[in-house]
Fold:
Amino acid sequence: MRRELAKIPYQARRSHSACEERHQFRLGPRISPSEADAFETEHHIVLPAAYRAFLIELGGSGAGPFYGLLPLDECRLFTMNRKPSDGSPQGFTHVDHPDAVQRDLFLHVIEMGCSDLCLIGVTGPLAGRVVTGNADGVWPPNVSSAPDFLSRYERWLDHMRDGKDNAALGLTSPATAASTPWGPRATAQKVLLSRARGATSPA
Structure:
């Protein structure tokens, strides 16, 4: 998987991954089993097996969807809020917040920015599954169809390599980027056009 990551920047027809400039497709140092044990003991949880194996065998932070994988010591536990009576989407609350309800636990593992969250289920029926949502309930939670963390990470790599669009993974295909005003290619074209105009403007 590290070899696949190293190849990604050089594949001309790959998808653009949101915020890839932050991690540059590099994984951070692996953690030790004792570090994983210490985190589990401190938080009274058991890390999902595939996620724990990833941290120990591949990398403890860095390359991943959106802003990338959070270091384990920056991961925080959340609970999913109860369904609002008005039918609006469920949000998430940090377990230490006084309003947090005693429900199944989710660990924040990937940084998406603002109040968006990418979590992995730690307890309950969604244990081991990746769930995305918004802390404030701006949009509804979404459970990945991938059975575990490693499968979803491999999906991110595969879809990016194959040049696919996948908003849930923060991927924009080359075709979409070329035809929309918000894609990375369109942004680059705007920069070049601005520079060209500046070069021809009178001093």
